[in-house]
Each structure stands twice: as C-alpha cells, then as structure tokens.
Amino acid sequence: MITKKIRHDIVFYLARLLFFVVNLLPRSFTLMIGESLGMAAYLFIKKERHKALTNLNRAYGDSLSYRRKKEIARDSFVTLGRCALEAMRLPKYYHHQIYPDIEIVGEQNLINALERKNGVVVFTGHIGNFELLAAFVAQSGYKTAVIGRELYQKRLDQLLIQNRSAMGLVNVRTDDSPRTILKLLKDNYTIGFLIDTDSFRVAGELTPFFGRPAKTPIGPTQLGLLTKSAFLPVFCLSFPGGKYKIIIGEELMPDSHDRSPENVFKITCQMTETIEDMIRQYPEQWIWLHNRWHTHEV
C-alpha cells in the first residue's frame, strides 16, 4: 500500500524532474508538451473536466451552446498546461526568449500609480500566465511582491518560492501578518493579489460574479484603503506559440478611502466586475476548474 508520504515524495521528485527537463528542451518543444499535458488532463481527468463544465454552465447558462462550453473548457486546460511549463523556465529564459514575445499595453498606468508613492494593489485573477505577470513587473524594475497561498506540500511550495525569488519577487503568504503587506505598500511596492478565489482562510464577501454570489477576499481592499494605495487591474494573456499580452488597465478610483463595510464591499465588487469583464473577453484564459462558487453553490 502506498502511503501518503510516498505519494508526496513521488509528486515532489516528479516536479523536480519536470523543472530540470523543461529547462533543457527548446522552448517550442516545451510549449507543445505543456499544451499536450493540458489536453490530456482535459480528456482523461473526468472529475476536473466535469468541474470546469459545471462552472461554465453556472456562468453562461443557456447563452452558450454546450459545444462552445466544451471548447472553452478544453482551451482553458491547454492554456494552463502551456503556462505552467513556461513559468518553470522563467529564471533561465525570461530575458532572451520570453520577454521579446510580450506585448505590453498601458504601462504608463502603473508608472502614474507609483508616482504617488503609496504603493499599488494590483488585482488580477487566475487568467493566462499570472506567474509571468508578476515576474514581468519585477523584472521591469518595480519593487514587487505577490501574495501566495502555501501549497499542500512544503517542498513543492519551496520550489515555487525559489522560482519567484529568482525573478526578484517577494513572496508573502496568505497567513502572514497584514503588517507585512502594510509595510510593503508604505515602501511603494506593487503587490499582486489573485482575488478570484473562494477561500475559507481569509475574510471575504459574496460579490456578484457572472450573476452569482461568489466569495471574494476583502483584505486587499481594506489594506489598499488604509494606505491610500492605487487599485490597478493587470492581466497577462497567453496565446499559442508563446505570445503574451500584458494589459495594465486604468486605475480604479474609489469615491472615498472610508473603510466602512459598505465602501469595502462596493470597491471589491468593482474589482470583481473588472475581472469578469476580462474573462468574458478571453474565456479560454481563465481556470474554469477552480471552485469559484464553492461557498454559495447552487
């Protein structure tokens, strides 16, 4: 009988092997392998495929055909596979292979936000290559931190943190003291928050997402209001052939920096709506197998 420890060992050493192999292979071959792994996961992991299609039904109802939903789910798996393997190559290949294939839109919005020296709350979602997004900001010369949930296996978590640190990122755990984030914002850091998550570990509110209540973390909103930081939507879209488009949107301007529950809820809803708008434009970029409506499943 295979014990839990043995299973964890197998997963860890396979992950290390994968990191090693993808950094030896040509980029085009790595991208192909990533897409193939994503397609295989879609075809053979029935539980995850069903979860993705269920979420697409929740989001779109009868407005999309079942065939179109299957196409989006399949392409979402393929995108995830391609991005996962590309992210493993960032420390070694970012500058001479990956960066030249990035189209950047709206960087002046980030520059303007940082000029006020109150820090920037970058809100985004599990869209495209979000690991590359954070690396791009850091490698562009901006002080950057990311909020990362600890993985179920500490050794895998350490691999991920090492990968981020090699790109100049400061990694902050979701269970770290809020003072850590406040200090970074006051030091004019850009801090990335993935707010399209339904987590029991952090405080959240039910905000509208594709017409359904979805638990959304409110910590980023509260901290941003406290420090008068800018709220900036940023996304990294991934396309076949290793092409990327980083979109730095216009700053979300709160009517006030009042930290009342009503104002926190209003701003969190606005951020959620911005993410939804991006997903609607590029539905194949989002990870549909994520349990976004877990708290309020219907």
How does this structure look, described?
The protein is 52% helix and 17% strand. The chain is built from eleven helices and nine strands. The strands form two sheets. Strands 1-9-8-2-5-3-4 form a seven-stranded mixed β-sheet, with helices on both faces. Helix 3 packs across helix 4 (66-88) and helix 9 crosses helix 10. 39% of the residues are buried. Strand 8 (230-239) and strand 9 (243-248) form a beta hairpin. It has one domain. The protein has 298 residues and is of the alpha/beta class.
Sheet-strand content, in percent, reads: 15-25%
Q: List the domain count as a whole number.
A: 1
Mean pLDDT: 92
Give the strand line-up of the largest sheet: 1-9-8-2-5-3-4
Shape: globular
- Give the topology string: H per helix, E per strand: HHHHHEHEHEHEHEEEHEEH
How much helicity do the residues have?
Answer: 40-55%
Total of DSSP H or I helical runs spanning 4+ residues: 11
From the alpha carbons, calculate the radius of gyration and give it in angstroms: 19 Å
What gap, in angstroms, lies between the N and C termini?
38 Å
Derived structural class: alpha/beta
Please summarize the sheet with the most strands.
7 strands, mixed
Number of strands: 9
Low-pLDDT runs? none
